[in-house]
Amino acid sequence: MPAQRLDGKACANAVETELHERIEVLTNAGVQPHLAVIIVGDDPASHVYVNSKIETCARLGIRSTHIALPAHCEEKVVRQHILNLNAQDDLHGILVQSPLPNHMDEEALTDLISPTKDVDGFHPQNLGRLVQGRTDGLLPCTPSAVMRLLKWAGVDLKGKRAVVLGRSRIVGMPAALLLAAKGADATVTVVHSRTKDIANVCREADVLVAAVGQTELVKPAWVKPGAVVVDVGINRVDDDARERGWRLAGDVHPSVADTAGWLTPVPGGVGPMTIAMLMENTVFAAESSHPKR
Ligand code: NDP
């Protein structure tokens, strides 16, 4: 039987419905959630992501400020924008779109964002809270998208074997921490490029999260029959016969659908949910900044 589709768009719609109510409460109290997005350079994919974020803000009634800077601008210009946004009382979330040009220090810039406005959840204070097992703050959007999709599908993680492919600061490691956190209670293995016998490690997983950035790396033989497979990967492949000449592919081969119990599509899986979690973080930051309202 083919895997059930773990539909990120449908799950994101459910999140947006909840957010509408919270935004209405805030707006009635005189607070409009407000997100600022800084993008540097002209990477087309990054501009598409930023535009989707801005469009989602507009749909939900979240105010947005879009700051687009040229690729050659100096790091100090970005730094000054962050400091100005930190000081702006009517602004609740700041996001610096990744990747930044090579001459900029992405982590140093993230460190400058006020932790209470860090809606990407990458500030050391917010990641540190996650390491401590405190999952009630601003969490990184893609890992929390994975968790919300699993919850939405009714997947009980308690005592299950979870394998996370990838150990990045923004996806793999925080996803592993969330899966292992109290309340989720999975037993987690993290796989990376130095892991031996990856296929066998993956085959033990009840829940497999692939975040490696390698087109269709995960094959059906890597997947336990009936496993839940979450494909975080977004890879551009230039082999499409259709007019535009390229397609988006995940880190999981589509034929895994014949083995898995649940599988997220690419596109339409973790991607839309990541934006939904960014919106949720922005609303949370706005609520936290006005606790008495
Ligand atoms: P990184 O390149 O930062 O990390 C990739 C990780 O995968 C590394 O830990 C690396 O290991 C590991 N890895 C790479 N190749 C292999 C391999 N052959 N076998 C085992 N492990 C391997 O990527 P990100 O975490 O930033 O992103 C991962 C994917 O998720 C990308 O496709 C990205 O586009 C996508 N993404 C999707 C988002 C969404 O909204 N859906 C948001 C963010 C990312 P090592 O550490 O040893 O180098």
Q: How would you concisely characterize the structure shown here?
A:
With about 290 residues, the chain is α/β, with parallel strands linked by helices. It is built from 9 helices and 11 strands.
Structure explained in plain terms:
With 293 residues, this protein is an alpha/beta fold. It has 9 helices and 11 strands. α7 links the parallel β5 (161-165) and β6. Bound molecules: NADPH dihydro-nicotinamide-adenine-dinucleotide phosphate. Residues 142, 165-168, 170-172, 191-195, 198, 211-214, 217, 232-235, 270-271, 274 line the site of NADPH dihydro-nicotinamide-adenine-dinucleotide phosphate. NADPH dihydro-nicotinamide-adenine-dinucleotide phosphate binds next to α9.
Helices and strands, with pairings:
Layout: E1 4-5, H1 8-28, E2 34-40, H2 44-60, E3 63-69, H3 75-86, E4 93-96, H4 106-112, H5 124-131, H6 141-152, E5 161-165, H7 172-180, E6 187-191, H8 198-203, E7 207-210, E8 228-231, E9 235-237, E10 247-249, E11 262-263, H9 270-289
Parallel strand pairs: 1-11, 2-3, 2-4, 5-6, 5-7, 7-8, 8-11
Antiparallel strand pairs: 9-10
The structure holds NADPH dihydro-nicotinamide-adenine-dinucleotide phosphate.
The site of NADPH dihydro-nicotinamide-adenine-dinucleotide phosphate has 26 residues, from helix 9.
